[in-house]
């Protein structure tokens, strides 16, 4: 079975939010937060048949930039099956079609699986920060130029 990727709209935005909030419990998003993000980013859902396995965000390059952010989240019970790699590949292709020449991602520091996934796929850390009122850092990573 192959991974099917669909744009999150309507009720799919609530599915997208549920996955985000499960994987990033320290920074839960409201429905309004997700609706705002959907207006400026590509929010997608990944399905294996009828099973929802993950979500992704592509933040497109700004008009004066060639940097896109690609974030793929796979639910724990579906990891280590190649789904994340397939999802990442598809979303990287989309980001490049939007003109991205540099690809970044962001992972919650406590998400060991996410950090390992990013490392295996060639991402290198370039920044860490803690959002106001929170205690766990987010880690910004990027693909080296030859992998972007």
Automatic annotation (TrEMBL):
CDD domains the UniProt entry points to: NAT_SF
Chain ranges of the N-acetyltransferase domain: 3-146
GO molecular function: acyltransferase activity, transferring groups other than amino-acyl groups
Signal peptide boundaries: none
UniProt-listed InterPro entries: Acyl_CoA_acyltransferase (IPR016181), Bact_Acetyltransf (IPR050832), GNAT_dom (IPR000182)
Coiled coil: none
Keyword Plastid recorded: no
Alphabetically ordered keywords of this record: Acyltransferase, Transferase
PANTHER family: AMINOALKYLPHOSPHONATE N-ACETYLTRANSFERASE-RELATED-RELATED (PTHR43877)
Protein name according to UniProt: GNAT family N-acetyltransferase
